[in-house]
C-alpha cells in the first residue's frame, strides 16, 4: 500500500490563551498511547532525553522503547526565546501493519509551557487497508473526528 497522509480530521487547535481547552484537548501522545495499547503490549517507558544545542536550536531526543517497538520523540526549540514554537516529530516503530510519523508544533502558553498543539503533517505507511481502517477507528475514538487519508504529494 502506498504511503498515506492525513488530509482531514486533524484535532482541534485551541487558542493559546484558552487554558481550559488547551488542557482538555487530546494531543499526539493520546493517539500514540492508544495505538500501543490496542496494537502492542502498551507504550514503553521513556528513556532519559538526549539533548544537543548548537546555540540556535536545542534538540531533545527521547525514546519510548526502541526501534524494535516504540516511539522516537524529537523536540526542537529555541534556546533563547519561547516566542518561537517547539517543533516535534513522533515516529512509531514495531506496530503491526502501521508506521506513523507525526510532525506538529507546540506554541508556548505562558505558565503552561509548550502546550498549544498545531498539526503539521501525519504520514503513515500501512501494510493493508485494514490497518488504515484500524488507525482511523482509534483516531476517531481519541479525537472524535473521522480522519481521511490521501497519497503523499
Concise summary:
The chain is α+β, with helices and mostly antiparallel strands and 153 residues long. The protein has three helices and eight strands; from the N terminus they run βααββββββαβ.
Q: Order of strands in the sheet with the most strands?
A: 2-3-4-5-6-7-1-8
Spans of at least 5 consecutive residues with low confidence? none
Strand content: 35-45%
Q: Which assembly state applies to the chains in this document?
A: single chain
Pick out its properties.
alpha+beta, 153 residues
Description:
The chain is an alpha+beta fold and 153 residues long. The chain has one domain. The protein contains three helices and eight strands. It has helices at residues 19-24, 28-39, 129-143, and strands spanning 4-8, 50-53, 58-66, 69-77, 86-93, 98-108, 114-126, 148-151. The chain has an eight-stranded antiparallel beta sheet, with helices on one face. Strand 6 (98-108) and strand 7 form a beta hairpin. The longest helix has 15 residues, at 129-143. The radius of gyration is 16 Å and the shape is globular. The model has no long low-confidence stretch (mean pLDDT 93).
Annotate the secondary structure layout.
Blueprint: E1 4-8, H1 19-24, H2 28-39, E2 50-53, E3 58-66, E4 69-77, E5 86-93, E6 98-108, E7 114-126, H3 129-143, E8 148-151
Antiparallel strand pairs: 1-7, 1-8, 2-3, 3-4, 4-5, 5-6, 6-7
Helix pairs in contact: 2-3
Amino acid at each position: 500500500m502506498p504511503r498515506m497522509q492525513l488530509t482531514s480530521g486533524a484535532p482541534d487547535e485551541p487558542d493559546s490563551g484558552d487554558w481550559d481547552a488547551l488542557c482538555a484537548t487530546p494531543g499526539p501522545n493520546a493517539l500514540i498511547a492508544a495505538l500501543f495499547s490496542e496494537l502492542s503490549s502498551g507504550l514503553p517507558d521513556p528513556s532519559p532525553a538526549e539533548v544537543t544545542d548548537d546555540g540556535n536550536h536545542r534538540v531533545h531526543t527521547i525514546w519510548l522503547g526502541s526501534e524494535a517497538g516504540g516511539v522516537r520523540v524529537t523536540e526542537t526549540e529555541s534556546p533563547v526565546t519561547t516566542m518561537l514554537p517547539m517543533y516535534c516529530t513522533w515516529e512509531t516503530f514495531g506496530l503491526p501493519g502501521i508506521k506513523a510519523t507525526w510532525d506538529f508544533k507546540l506554541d508556548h502558553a505562558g505558565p503552561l509551557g509548550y502546550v498549544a498543539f498545531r498539526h503539521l503533517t501525519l504520514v503513515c505507511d500501512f501494510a493493508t487497508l485494514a490497518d488504515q481502517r484500524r488507525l482511523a477507528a482509534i483516531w476517531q475514538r481519541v479525537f472524535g473526528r473521522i480522519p481521511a487519508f490521501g497519497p503523499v504529494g
